[in-house]
Automatic annotation (TrEMBL):
This is Transporter. Residues 1-18 form the signal peptide. It comes from the Bacteria. InterPro entries: FApF. Keywords: Signal. It holds the Pfam family Phenol_MetA_deg.
Amino acid sequence: MKKIVYIFLMIAFASANAQIITDRPTQTESSLTVNSGDLQIESGYLISFENDLKNTLAPVALFRYGITKGVEVRILSQFQTAKENNITSKGISDLQIGTKIQLLNNEDVNTKIAFSSQLSLPTGSKGFSSEKTGSINRLSFSHSITNNTGIGYGIGYDYFGFGNGNAIYSISLGTAVNNKVSIYIEPYGTFVNLNNHISNINTGFTYLQNDYLQFDFSFGTGINQKSNYISAGISWLIKHKSSI
């Protein structure tokens, strides 16, 4: 059963032996929360290209802290560099702060469900801030198919103070290659302003160094538009003494 730990890859199904369970590198968030008293840091580096615009996010830092069983608080911060037509600008993106709540996590049920909601605060640098308070919401599901393979999917709605907001979806299929390496493939997309559909696909892998440290690599491309990205990251679980 230990292999189930590595399936999560980014889909995250759970088993009693699971240690580090991350939200990165997939678009589909984990359907599990961090255990009470534990701190998890998920950091990465991402470069994306869209037409003549090159965006670099480095570092991206997500802090997850379990405040009680099935509930975690989350803080996301990232430094962004944008380059277009040989003009480069740098700054900090809007701070995101919120929570994830476990809705279903029963060992007798093959489905895990969690809901996360974060406020996007207009704290970013000029040119990198929406200048309005927004919200980012996700409902995440996961199911194990076999001991080595599982599927996760999510839906969401983001609103940043203007227009109709964006509807989000993603479906991630992952499998464990061995007790260290897992791979996944994931189509995902956005209905911008609840109208214009942008679809993408990505793939990647995770490498579990130990129960508390995981490395990841991913890349993706647009399906109905010209865009692509590449990303690498590291996640670190700091266990509370009482849970070790």
